[in-house]
Design goal:
about 475 residues; alpha/beta; Dihydrodipicolinate Reductase, domain 2; 15 helices; globular
């Protein structure tokens, strides 16, 4: 994309903002230590409900507005807030009109990730601080624009990667960095998380009259829906989602990257996977493995959304755990989220416990006014989300391949070969031929420019696609 085109996108969004009265310069209002924090919640779904509970119960915080293109959800949230906290918030359908209001200082963005970037950028431009859910962004490039907006307008932006505020994970990181378990050899992140098919309709799903569908689609393609549910299941389509390796995976790889201290994309990345058994309208993989090649230690990720086998309700496990980050060291291994330390024979030798207060950390940082008090600054969320996107780039550029072809491309990487063994065994438990897998290429990362070296097709996905008038602006710092 040329500079001229990018400038056109920026000007188009600025013009759209002006049309609904968005000031393009941040306000100077500073939140005092004892001042009431007025918050608007954007997105009235499951995570929005968690935000209402977490922020509504914080001392000195009042939810003054809720925003969602579905008027039924809006009304339900307004009633809930009034019943729980005694004030009835304003109900706003269009987030652009929300930004024109003067009755809030902070927004929490609890939409699906394809709608994360615009509210975050607009909030920063209009002088608001932001709590935004994970994964940070739908594309790598737009995540960088969110970071730039936070820096340009000097706003605090926290990302919903809660492990950053979990005492257990922090203690484990300190323990591993002390060297008591020896050198880190590799890290296996994994999500054995059951999902079900999202349906495959012959006729498009009817859109409820209470929903502004054009606004709900926003920057994504506006197209008929052939799945059974409108909300959430859009995360299992590339148009609006990024699959389990990004949706759940950002939690595990964030902890791994945090531990290693890596601050860029890996040197190279590769992915293998597929959407097996379900035969539905989803197009993201439900079984996937990835290899992120970092100089300090490789990070691997595996996703199993299917059960352990076709005739069982049990889920696959990795060393006895379903979802976690396993750090293999010379003297043993650690399950990060669980806080469990084992020797190389699998005997537990140490245990850590602790609480998590991620929403509270954000409120405390607002009162201090210090970015360094945030446990999950927008830049950290961006870097970890990038890692997940990079794995999906490889998958999305892949082709059908035999197990032998996969093994040949993996090459002399024993840990990745072992992960592929588990992958093959898992597919065979469902009578799936591993030869139905999609093998992605090794992608060499341009770490300085957050893109892929010499691969125009991959970089189109890095840059992303936006529907007018919902283009994400380029934000220059």
């Amino acid at each position: 994309m040329s500079v001229t085109r990018r400038e056109f996108v920026r000007q188009s969004v600025a013009a759209a903002a002006a049309a609904v009265g968005l000031p393009m310069v941040a306000s100077s209002r500073v939140l005092g230590a004892n001042e009431e924090i007025r918050m608007a919640v954007v997105g009235c779904g499951g995570r929005g409900g968690a935000h209402v509970s977490a922020f509504g119960g914080q001392p000195g915080v009042r939810i003054t507005a809720v925003c969602d293109p579905d008027r039924t959800r809006l009304e339900a949230f307004a009633k809930r807030i009034e019943a729980s906290y005694g004030n009835r918030p304003a109900q706003v359908v269009d987030v652009r009109q929300l930004m024109d209001r003067k009755d809030f200082d902070v927004i929490s963005v609890a939409t699906m990730q394809y709608w994360h970037s615009l509210p975050t950028i607009w909030a920063c431009e209009t002088g608001r601080h932001v709590y935004v859910e994970k994964p940070l962004a739908h594309f790598i490039w737009e995540g960088r624009q969110m970071v730039n907006a936070a820096r340009k307008y000097n706003r605090l932006v926290q990302v919903g990667t809660q492990a950053r505020s979990r005492d257990t994970d922090r203690q484990v990181i300190d323990y591993l960095r002390s060297g008591q378990l020896g050198k880190i050899q590799y890290i296996v992140c994994f999500a054995n998380k059951a999902r079900t098919p999202i349906g495959k309709r012959s006729e498009p799903l009817p859109i409820p009259e209470t929903l502004d569908y054009d606004l709900w689609c926003g920057p994504a393609r506006k197209e008929p829906i052939y799945r059974d549910r409108l909300q959430y299941d859009c995360s299992f389509t590339w148009n609006m989602g990024d699959g389990e390796s990004c949706n759940q995976g950002v939690h595990e790889v964030d902890v791994a990257r945090w531990l290693l201290g890596e601050t860029t994309l890996p040197r190279r990345v590769m992915s293998v996977g597929g959407r097996f058994v379900f035969n539905d309208a989803g197009d993201v993989p439900n079984t996937q493995i990835m290899y992120y090649d970092y100089p300090s230690a490789p990070i691997l990720y595996e996703v199993h959304n299917l059960r352990a086998g076709k005739d069982t309700k049990a889920m696959s496990l990795f060393r006895g755990r379903g979802v976690d980050t396993c750090v293999q060291c010379e003297g043993g291994y650690v399950m990060m989220h669980a806080g469990l330390v084992f020797d190389n024979q699998g005997k537990e030798i140490k245990r850590f416990t602790g609480r998590e207060d991620h929403f509270g950390n954000f409120i405390r940082a607002l009162r201090s006014g210090k970015r360094e008090d945030l446990n999950a600054d927008v830049l950290e969320g961006h870097l970890s989300t990038n890692l997940c996107h990079a794995g999906n780039l490889s998958y999305r550029l892949g082709q059908r391949a035999s197990a032998a072809d996969v093994r040949a491309q993996i090459g002399d990487l024993p840990v990745f070969q072992e992960m592929f063994d588990r992958y093959v065994e898992h597919l065979k438990a469902h009578d799936v031929d591993p030869g139905e897998s999609t093998l992605g290429p090794w992608l060499e990362c341009d770490t300085a420019n957050e893109c892929i070296k010499d691969n125009a097709q991959a970089n189109e996905l890095v840059r992303g696609f936006y529907r007018k008038p919902f283009e994400v602006p380029e934000v220059k710092v």
